[in-house]
Write a structure and sequence with these properties.
The structure holds two protein chains of two kinds. Chain A is built from 22 helices and two strands. In chain A, strand 1 and strand 2 (about 190) form a beta hairpin. Helices cover about 70% and strands about 0% of the residues of chain A. Chain B is mostly helical. Chain B is flat. The N and C termini of chain B lie far apart (about 70 Å). The chains are: A mainly alpha, B mainly alpha. The interface between A and B is large, with 52 and 62 residues.
């Protein structure tokens, strides 16, 4: 399938009556999840995964990706209106969004944020589309030895660049890999780490593990914290005034198109690097917006450029993150790991086959990001006041309901009650990891990559023998991993000796 | 003025130290648990054929090294906290957060048990009702409305929209005439 055929097919599929309704529902679902503080994009995707079993590939992809695409928009809305970012990636919006609200310009900030999100996401999607021909060529150089070492490099990036402690993150990543090895070994038919249970013969299933780590853990956290999610609900603006301000905000986003473009480029570029995620991209974009502004002194006091920059960047990240996930099957973040597991459930394979035979699916993703964000922007703008009321749902009401849906989702995959138990066990583990600052993203990425690591190590040894390590690309990747890890350990040690007085 | 503020500051410091102490004790237990599991898995892997145990060893060796490194970090920091006291307090049921987590986990297991015996809808209804009414102190009206609404939502989405039959439970299945579980 040529790229143009794939593009046309992707456009037709994503706008067809069988796919578009799911894209629409997914967008609204993501928007609402994004609005509720404490529930992240991972949660939206983890919940969405449970519905994939009965869907066609294009439908499933549109649903899960649309849910993920609009989370940042919802999060930006609450960051501005309630000083509570719905997700971590909206933290940078807190710097100028709430001051604008306090000046009576909440609608302008919301309009600018929503429009910037849409423009940023479109930029990221366009870059992904442009990268496909390049990725098609590059990916051919990546056989089993290269993918084996690339997986370790990606895990190192995730562990080192994440916000958690490096040792803890590396422990989590390797633990995730070890958990992937539970079950019957395909080569020797040996039962590994199954504790004699037939349920574990096929290994730990992705969906209950994902639901446990990211959905059940969040439910336990919300239940422990309790209370209402939004601590303060400000006086809502009148509908007429809100709409007027929102359109002014949209106009400002388009007026600052050059800033949007630069910050989107920052977001997309950082999205390509596994482990960085959208929160750092948003802060870098904020810094850039401030540095390049003519009104530096008004940043932090309610400058609309301080909203436009980070919001454009945190949505543009997706395009870059998708590129490495689709081309190499190496997810750079927990969201991409969940997306990858969704692709497995839908029977799709990443790598060269995805970029050649299923290029229409890649374009379904691209158009989903664009349409999903457009839907999110439109609904976010017009339903600011009613949507913001979602934050006032009490944890004592929300947790039992969502937990029931999670348990049903865990069961639905294989119709096995055992999987609800798996989700609960991983939920408790995930909560412990969250509290103790162990990276759940690293564990999940390790778990997803565990299959790839084992398969590619086996194939590499079979095809090239133990000296596969000495081939140019694997050697380069190995050296990069060691140097990157070594440099970070050195800087930690250096900083510690600088801080601690003798 | 200073005298009024000082006790508040001291109290805040004590609460903060207590919180950090709890986290430290929890991490000691967490790391010990992970460490024991990995050691057991390592010993188990030695009984497998080399082709099957090769990749687990590639993962477990650095994992064990990292666990030891982190344990050493914790060991060096042990003097700042009375870990034993924090563990004993938690085991005695005097740590509110641990209690909440245990109660919630217990009711999640309870939901699975009810689902197994009485079926999915009964389990979900009971779970929502118990948590909302008896732990969340919500009104009966809201509790019953939300619990029934959740059951209806699950039925509509899973059984009607996605054609996924949810589990009917051992007891209803017995009355339906099934004898093979």
């Amino acid at each position: 399938m040529t790229i143009f055929e794939g593009m046309a097919s992707g456009l037709l599929q994503s706008t067809s009556l069988t796919v578009f309704p799911y894209l629409f529902v997914g967008s609204l679902f993501g928007l609402i999840i994004g609005i509720i503080p404490g529930l992240s994009g991972h949660f939206a995707m983890a919940m969405a995964v449970t519905f994939l079993y009965t869907m066609e590939p294009a439908t499933g992809i549109a649903f899960i990706l649309a849910a993920h695409a609009t989370v940042a928009q919802g999060g930006g809305l609450t960051a501005i209106l309630f000083s509570t970012p719905g997700t971590g990636q909206n933290a940078a919006t807190l710097l100028d969004g709430p001051p604008m609200r306090d000046k009576g310009q909440a609608g302008i900030a919301v309009g600018a944020a929503m429009a910037s999100c849409f423009l940023g996401a479109t930029f990221g999607a366009a870059v992904l589309a442009l990268l496909i021909p390049v990725l098609r060529e590059v990916v051919l150089f990546f056989g089993p030895p290269e993918v084996f070492f690339l997986a370790f490099l990606a895990l190192t990036f995730v562990a080192v660049l994440g916000k958690e402690d490096m040792t803890r993150s590396l422990i989590a990543a390797l633990l995730g890999m070890l958990l992937a090895m539970v079950g019957v070994d395909n080569v020797t038919n040996t039962f590994r780490f199954t504790l004699g249970s037939d349920h574990l013969a096929d290994g730990l299933q992705l969906v209950p593990v994902i639901l446990g780590l990211f959905a059940v853990a969040e439910m336990i956290d919300l239940w422990v914290r309790g209370g209402t999610l939004a601590k303060e609900v400000p006086q809502a603006l009148s509908a007429k005034e809100t709409q007027r301000q929102i359109f002014t905000g949209i106009g400002l986003a388009f007026k600052n198109w050059w800033l949007v473009l630069r910050c989107s480029a920052i977001g997309t570029g950082m999205g390509l690097i596994p482990g960085l995620g959208s929160a750092p991209a948003a802060f870098v974009a904020y810094g850039h917006a401030k540095q390049s502004s003519k009104n530096k002194e008004t940043f932090g006091k309610g400058n609309v450029e301080g909203v436009i920059g980070p919001e454009a960047a945190n949505d543009a990240v997706e395009g870059g993150a998708l590129a490495s996930t689709l081309a190499f099957g190496i997810p750079g973040s927990s969201s991409m790991a969940i997306l990858l597991s969704g692709l497995f459930i839908l029977g799709l394979d990443t790598g060269p086959r995805m970029l050649t035979q299923n290029v229409d699916i890649v374009f379904v993703m691209i158009f989903t990001i664009i349409f999903g964000n457009l839907i999110g922007t439109i609904f976010g703008m017009f339903l600011v006041n009613p949507l913001s009321r979602a934050t006032s749902i009490r944890a004592s009401v929300m947790v039992p309901v969502l937990m029931s849906v999670i348990a049903t989702g865990a069961y639905a995959g294989d119709r096995a009650i055992f999987h609800i138990g798996v989700a609960i066990v991983f939920g408790i583990l995930g909560y412990g990891m969250k509290v103790l600052n162990y990276s759940r993203a690293a564990l999940l990425i390790g778990f997803v990559l565990g299959f790839a690591v084992e398969k590619n190590l086996y194939l590499a040894l079979l095809l090239d023998g133990p000296l596969f390590v000495l081939q140019p690309i694997p050697l380069g990747l190995l050296v990069t991993t060691i140097v990157f890890l070594g440099w970070n350990i050195f800087t930690i040690y250096r900083d510690r000796t600088k801080v601690i007085p003798k | 003025m200073t005298n009024e503020i000082e006790p508040k500051v001291n109290k805040a410091e004590t609460v903060d130290k207590d919180k950090r102490g709890n986290l430290f004790a929890l991490e000691v237990c967490f790391l010990a648990f992970i460490g024991i599991i990995v050691v057991v898995a390592f010993l188990e892997a030695t009984t497998y054929k080399i082709v099957s145990s090769r990749t687990p060893f590639v993962v477990m060796v650095p994992l064990l090294i990292l666990i030891v490194i982190h344990a050493m970090r914790l060991w060096r920091a042990r003097s700042a906290f009375d870990t034993r006291r924090h563990i004993i307090t938690a085991l005695a049921g005097k740590n509110a957060i641990i209690n909440k987590v245990l109660v919630f986990s217990g009711w999640m297991i309870g939901m699975v048990t009810i689902i197994t015996l009485m079926g999915h809808y009964a389990g979900v209804f009971a779970f929502c009702l118990i948590l909302m009414r008896f732990f969340g102190a919500e009104s009966w009206k809201l509790t019953l409305f939300v619990s029934a609404g959740t059951v209806l939502f699950l039925f509509s989405v899973f059984e009607i929209a996605f054609n996924i039959d949810l589990y009917r439970g051992l007891i209803p299945r017995w009355f339906m005439g099934y004898r093979d579980f």
